[in-house]
Write a structure and sequence with these properties.
disordered C terminus; about 250 residues; globular
């Protein structure tokens, strides 16, 4: 029943969005997506990117030696908080909930005329999708066992089906929130990172992840949101292409 209601809500919002956008349909999101997918291989195959990835990997490896102690501290801290609150933090990183919500928010933004808000909503949604794909790929390759299996932090068996590293929940919540901070920088938007921190601690406290798992998820989520936001903001300043049934409009902003 809930699933049926959920699908009806999405259909209604989508139909409204399309009807509202028909008079001035923007192509920039299609252009951005294609451009982003093309730019990823080009940006990865650089010396600077290689050095950055190596430094991050080295840092995570160093931190992993303290996984047991840090995870235990997280458990001691989080267990003093109500379990219901920890559950909320868990759900804030649940991609099956957050990704559809981000998509609905983006579709809803198309019904208005605030293109800056539309850009932020699209970037947040795309950041979740891209970061989730990267994280799930790494989970498959690394095959690290979760703490709740009774394994030690060094229990890694590639392509084994174990999915502890990186943390998907930490990835999702930081991929969601980072673009909003980039588009609307303020103390208020920065404070939403508390949600991400709460999610990371909750995942450790309930034995779903080691500390290095959630740290890797934070890096992926934040990095994806940050890079996409910088790229999209730069593209928006340079060009805005849109069309309707009456005209095509190409605007350059210097």
């Amino acid at each position: 029943m809930q699933k049926r209601v959920y699908m009806i809500v999405i259909a209604v919002i989508l139909s409204v969005s399309i009807s509202q956008a028909q008079s001035s349909t923007s192509l920039r999101f299609v252009q951005w997506t294609i451009g982003d997918m093309t730019a990823i291989p080009q940006s990865v195959l650089t010396v600077q990117t290689g050095l950055t990835i190596g430094a991050v990997a080295g840092g995570l490896l160093a931190v992993s030696h303290f996984d047991k102690d840090l995870s235990q501290h997280a458990q001691e801290f989080a267990h003093s908080t109500p379990r219901g609150l920890r559950r909320v933090f868990h759900e804030m990183g649940n991609e099956r909930i957050i990704r559809p919500m981000a998509g609905i928010l983006f579709l809803g933004s198309l019904t208005g005329g605030n293109t800056y808000f539309q850009d932020a909503a699209f970037t947040s949604f795309q950041s979740i999708v891209f970061a989730t794909l990267l994280t799930n790929g790494m989970k498959l390759i690394v095959g690290r066992s979760r703490p709740n299996t009774g394994s030690n932090p060094n229990s890694i068996h590639p392509f084994s089906g174990h999915r502890s590293f990186p943390s998907g929940h930490s990835t999702t919540v930081f991929a969601l929130t980072t673009p909003w901070l980039m588009y609307y920088p303020s103390i208020a938007t920065a404070s939403i990172f508390v949600l991400g921190a709460g999610t990371a601690v909750a995942r450790m406290a309930d034995d779903y992840h080691w500390f290095s798992d959630v740290l890797a998820g934070v890096v992926i989520g934040f990095g994806t949101g940050y890079l996409l936001s910088k790229r999209h903001q730069g593209l928006a300043r340079k060009m805005n292409l849109s069309f309707s049934s009456h005209h095509i409009c190409l605007t350059w902003l210097m």
